[in-house]
Every structure is written in C-alpha cells, then in structure tokens.
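ARCHIVE CARD
CATEGORY: sequence design from structure
SOURCE FIELD: tokenized fold
FIELD CONTENT:
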C-alpha cells in the first residue's frame, strides 16, 4: 500500500503564499487544521477535507428534511 501524499498548504489569507506548515491537527473546530505561513508568519486555519471528500451526514440523519420548503 502506498502512502498518501500530504495535502499542499492552502493559501495564506494575508499574503496569498502557499508556503505554510501544519502546526496543529485541530483548529477552533475539529474539522480544521492550523497552519503557520512561512512567508509572513500569519497563523490561519483551513478545512481538513477537500471538496471531493464527503464527511457530513445526510440531512435526514440530522433530523432535518433535505429541502426546508417541502
């Protein structure tokens, strides 16, 4: 089994650099990572999952209807 490639750091919201490192596996939410930008030193958070991954349960599992207007 091959090891997965690490995710590339998201862009820093301050300077737009992608030269960042993960400093914590959990941010203010369990679904975020904390990063430090090497270019400007800003600390920022980004979602752990990219758009292709499904991690939320379907609305019916949360006790809600999928369409609130029905």
């Amino acid at each position: 089994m091959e090891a997965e490639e690490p995710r590339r750091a998201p862009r820093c919201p301050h300077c737009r650099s992608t030269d960042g490192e993960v400093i914590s596996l959990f941010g203010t939410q369990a679904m975020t990572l904390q990063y430090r930008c090497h270019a400007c030193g800003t600390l920022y958070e980004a979602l752990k999952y990219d758009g292709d991954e499904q991690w939320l349960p379907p609305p019916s599992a949360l006790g809600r209807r999928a369409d609130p207007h029905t």
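CARD ANNOTATION: Residues 7-49 form one domain. The chain has no helices and three strands.
SHELF: design records, drawer C
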